[in-house]
Write a structure and sequence with these properties.
Helix content: 25-40%
Largest sheet: 4 strands, mixed
Strand order of the largest sheet: 1-4-5-6
Oligomer: single chain
Distance between the termini: 23 Å
């Protein structure tokens, strides 16, 4: 899949290789607003939808402001981090790695 960053490519690859069904940047209607979560994932055992947002430039002030506004929108519509929203973060000095991504995939999808 074509994705926007190296980190999103890692997430994409790990979901795919673990046979977890997902769509990348699929439109999601929240009231009058349409947003595009990085990943819309169907839990392979329960069929429940889980979203995954990767925030990759948290050291950029306007980016982090937008990230937190997006999280507020999600929460307002019942999409809650740790429940049905996976969130990952990174900065230039603190990149995410495949081990952390695999840990989250294992935790959320009981691999």
């Amino acid at each position: 899949n074509l994705v926007r960053s190296k980190s999103e490519a890692l997430i994409d690859m790990i979901l795919y290789t673990n046979k977890i069904p997902f769509r990348y940047e699929c439109a999601l209607r929240l009231g009058d607003l349409t947003i595009y979560p990085d990943y819309t994932i169907m839990h392979p055992k329960t069929g429940k939808i889980i979203y995954w947002e990767h925030f990759g430039m948290m050291d950029v002030p306007t980016y982090s402001d937008n990230a937190f506004n997006k999280l507020k929108q999600f929460s307002y519509y019942g999409i809650i981090p740790g429940i049905n929203l996976i969130t990952t973060y990174e900065t230039k000095q603190h990149p995410i790695d495949s081990g952390k991504i695999m840990q989250l995939v294992t935790t959320y999808f009981s691999l």
